[in-house]
Amino acid sequence: MATKSQPRVRVPATAKAGEIVEIKTLISHEMESGQRKDADGKPIPRKIIHAFEASFNGKVFFAATWYPSVSANPYQSFFYKAAETGEFKFTWKDDDGSEYAATAKMTVA
Amino acid sequence: MTMTSAGITRRQAIGSAAIAVFAAALAPRLALADEAAVAAELKKLYADKPMTEGRIKLDVPQIAENGLVVPLNVDVESPMTAADHVKAVHVFADGNPLPQILTYRFTPESGKASASIRMRLAQTQTIVCVAEMSDGKLYSAKAGVKVTIGGCGG
């Protein structure tokens, strides 16, 4: 059972220079911990998103390493100090090697 | 390091004895981490560097009804300038199958060393948070969470 991982991000469309804005991200993912067993008692292999990264205009400003203790459909919120107009890029790295990405634009007045 | 005549250090001897007791006590059940596992992870990261309590606001519910989704909010007090900012934050749990929960890496551009997430907790336990500052100083905080229904399927 693998749902397609769909990222969702919420970023303010505009900000003042120097303003600290909150960014909220959510991605659908079962975050299989590797601790559970299936009906036959066989362990279900681990499959989680283990790395998250947020960058602005190509520069990484926040990163997270996740372990199996992170809940399914991981929600992550954090902050960014607005300085210039540009684009956020968010990436999630799966144990199976796939990568999910989302982008969002922010205008600084 | 001084060696005993048997060629094993005292620390090694205590360590293996502790592992044996731990394994015997928990072998039939789901192997869960404990305080020693959290301490061992911290030692791997920062050796025996001293830690000061404070500067961290660790926001977790006192009672979590559902261990599958427990909100966790970490907020570290810091000016977040290039000269003085929070570099990393590690969160550990002493009663989950794995001691680590997550690691955050902050930069001065983060503006605020604060982040929220939701975590799984297998049982009632203590959450330990350690923050590393840009000058290398370490701060720590602890919070207990009572879990009504555990969140790590067995």
Molecular structure report:
The complex is a heterodimer of chains A (109) and B (154). Helices cover 0% and strands 51% of the residues of chain A. Chain A has strands at residues 7-10, 14-15, 20-27, 49-56, 59-66, 75-81, 86-94, 99-108. Chain B is of the alpha+beta class and 154 residues long. Chain B folds into two domains: 1-30; 32-149, SoxY domain (Immunoglobulin-like, Sandwich), CATH 2.60.40.2470. The model of chain B is unreliable at 21-28 (pLDDT under 50). The interface between A and B is medium-sized, with 30 and 34 residues. Strand 5 (59-66) of chain A pairs antiparallel with strand 6 (100-106) of chain B, so a sheet runs across the interface.
In short:
Chain A is mainly β and 109 residues long.
Spans of chain A of at least 5 consecutive residues whose pLDDT stays below 50 are: none
CATH fold-level assignment of the largest domain in chain B: Immunoglobulin-like
Tell me the helix content of chain B: 10-25%
- The CATH architecture category of the largest domain in chain B equals Sandwich
Average pLDDT reading of chain B: 84
Number of domains of chain B: 2
Oligomer: heterodimer
Beta-strand fraction estimate of chain B:
35-45%
How many β-strand stretches of chain A? 8
CATH architecture of chain A: Sandwich
- Mean pLDDT, all residues of chain A: 93
Class per helix and strand makeup of chain A:
mainly beta
Q: Estimate percent helicity of chain A.
A: under 10%
What sort of overall outline of chain B do the alpha carbons produce when their principal axes are compared?
flat
What Rg of chain B is obtained from the alpha carbons, in whole angstroms? 18 Å
Instruction: From the alpha carbons, calculate the radius of gyration of chain A and give it in angstroms.
Output: 16 Å
CATH class of chain A: Mainly Beta
Domain Sulphur oxidation protein SoxZ (chain A): 10-104
Protein name (chain A): Thiosulfate oxidation carrier complex protein SoxZ
Pfam family, one (chain A): SoxZ
InterPro entries (chain A): Ig-like_fold, Ig_E-set, SoxZ, SoxZ_dom
